[in-house]
Amino acid sequence: MKKRIPVLMDSGIRGGADVLKALALGAKAVLVGKPICFGLGSAGSEGVTKVLTILRKEFEMAMALSGRTTIASIDRSVIWNNNQV
């Protein structure tokens, strides 16, 4: 039996494409504290709601542009490497 440690990504997440990349590289969850703090500081709870809505829409768009229809279908193949050209 393989024991696995779940990876949580926390740092540098600023948009939905960052969430997609973190999941593609193996993260089981993505933490978005700083964008939420920015939303809270600028517009209170409404700002937090707006930030989360924007992140979700950006993530959904990144999934669509990469041809992924489910989170489970996100894998390393969505990461493009200039060295592979």
Key terms:
single chain, mainly alpha, two-stranded parallel sheet
Molecular structure report:
With 85 residues, the protein is mainly alpha-helical. The protein has one domain. The chain contains 2 helices and 2 strands; from the N terminus they run βαβα. It is globular, with a radius of gyration of 15 Å.
The low-pLDDT segments are none
The gyration radius over C-alpha positions equals 15 Å
Number of domains: 1
Distance between the termini: 38 Å
Strand content: under 5%
- Helical run tally: 2
Largest sheet features: 2 strands, parallel
Overall number of strands? 2
Strand order of the largest sheet: 1-2
Shape: globular
- What helical percentage do the residues reach? 40-55%
Structural class: mainly alpha
How are helices and strands ordered from N to C? Answer: EHEH
Average residue-wise pLDDT: 92
Write the layout of secondary structure elements.
Blueprint: E1 8-9, H1 16-24, E2 29-30, H2 33-65
Parallel strand pairs: 1-2
Short description:
By secondary structure, the protein is mainly α. It is 49% helix and 5% strand.
